[in-house]
Amino acid sequence: MNPEELLRDAQLLDSQGRLGDAIGAYQQLLALRADLPDAWYNLAVLLRKTGQFPAALACYQHALNRGVDQPEEAHLNRGVIYADCLHQYDAAERELVTALTLNPTYVPALFNLANLQEDVGRANDAKVTYERILTLQPMNADALARYAGLHTFQDLGDPLVQRLKHRFAAPEMSDADRATLGFSLGRALDSCSEYAAAFETYAAANRYSRASAPPGSGVYDRRAEEQYIDRLVAAFPVPPGAVAGGDATPTPYPHPIFICGMFRSGSTLIEQVIADHTDVTPGGELEFLPNLVRTDLAPFPQSLATLSPADLNSLAAQYLRALAARFPGARHVIDKRPDNFLYVGLIKRLFPDAKIVHTKRDPLDNCLSIFFLHLDPQMSYALDLADIGHHYRQYRRLMQHWKTLYPADIHDVDYDTYVRHPETEAQRLLDFLGLASRPPDETQLRAVRAVKTASVWQVRQPLYQRSSGRARHYARELATLREALGS
């Protein structure tokens, strides 16, 4: 097959979603014609999609060495891999700075640089970078919202409040932009104790978020959610000792620690508490289990009925290899996806010795915090308080089932209790995980660690209790939520 045919074949395979075959076709092409920068770039994109990060970095570099057009894009993509996939933040910043040296007005690189500066705790640097974006694009709703997220609001006379109101009402804003600005404005109003106006603004932001959702999404199907939880319960009907599972975690791979619970239940804080231990690496919200459920285990959980112990061992080893590749040398790695509460049964099949840390908080506070958070509109339950309450009840039902099956391996950490008694609760948590106690001077969070979460600046501040009981400010607005939550 000649180079032109190989190129067409690679592009066709890519368009069909056959990524492995497309990678093979590009590799054959480049073995014949190594001078094609666009082919190197396209191969790098595919390698990144399939989790082959060092190889992707190398291919982007080949594209740069061969004079790829718009090299700032290649440097941007290298920066994203270093930051999001390999957690090498200095290397990521070097790539982004290089991209901006080549093109100082390249807004995607500016955005990623500002995000990186936020993640590593450099709030003032991030503000300056967002200001650069807003100078280039004054109507950029995302930049304004992120800039406002770094600001402390105290009264309605703050010029930034007025700026948010003006942009939120501007007729040229799209539904997605209005959603972004509405959540930011709602936060500002809440900070100024304008609770009725804040709630009204958050409600409008959720409506705009739903309007901006892709076709066929943005609507929560309560019956479908109940049926899915029913299937999960049915797929794990017996105590764990009666089910053949994967092998215990083998060396030299990292030992996973799982944190799950509702979004906004304190999981990021608890990850940072555990990661203060010198033997623990924070992994953040890893995609491995959800990807596994969508691909190898589809349709889940029905597919579990046909899995053999050998299949489970193979999947467990695949997970551990992925951890080792992303966190080389780590002894323990935290997998902190809140929605992994759906997969506790799967986790225990793959890793029978796994410890599950379950974060929770006052239900009204938790649900209200979700309603006030700008989540992906495809997480449709989050757009309506009654739907959030329904989702919470299904979550609670499933967690009760897991606790019945694995009572010794699930440890509840209550956010409201933790912020009142952090030392006691931290020690209980470390004891559960079998980790040695930390010296007293290590109890504060390390500010240099990157935090990739909507709670980033809350986590970086000293412990505070003002989020506990937050729902009391919205008592009149929460009647529907109380009814949805039931007892």
**How would a crystallographer describe the biggest sheet?**
5 strands, parallel
Q: Quickly give the structural class.
A: mainly alpha
Helix/strand order, N-terminal first: HHHHHHHHHHHHHEHEHHEHEHHEHHHH
Radius of gyration based on Cα positions: 24 Å
CATH architecture of the domain at 222-485: 3-Layer(aba) Sandwich
* Strand fraction: under 5%
* Number of separate strands: 5
CATH topology of the domain at 222-485: Rossmann fold
Q: How do the strands line up in the largest sheet?
A: 2-3-1-4-5
Number of helices: 23
Helix content: 55-70%
Kindly report how far apart the N and C termini lie.
67 Å
| CATH class identity of the domain at 222-485 | Alpha Beta
- Name the shape in a single word: globular
Parts with pLDDT < 50 across at least 5 consecutive residues: 440-448, 454-463
* CATH homologous superfamily placement of the domain at 222-485: P-loop containing nucleotide triphosphate hydrolases
- Overall pLDDT confidence: 91
Report on this structure.
It contains 23 helices and 5 strands. By secondary structure, it is mostly helical. Among the domains are: 139-212, no CATH class; 222-485, 3-Layer(aba) Sandwich (Rossmann fold). Mean pLDDT is 91; it is low at 440-448 and 454-463.
Task: Show the helix and strand layout.
Blueprint: H1 3-15, H2 19-32, H3 37-49, H4 53-65, H5 71-85, H6 89-102, H7 107-119, H8 123-136, H9 141-149, H10 159-169, H11 175-191, H12 195-211, H13 222-235, E1 255-261, H14 267-275, E2 280-282, H15 288-294, H16 309-326, E3 332-335, H17 344-350, E4 356-360, H18 363-371, H19 385-405, E5 410-414, H20 415-420, H21 422-433, H22 456-460, H23 479-485
Parallel strand pairs: 1-3, 1-4, 2-3, 4-5
Helix pairs in contact: 1-2, 2-3, 3-4, 4-5, 5-6, 5-7, 6-7, 7-8, 8-9, 9-11, 10-11, 11-12, 13-19, 18-19, 19-23
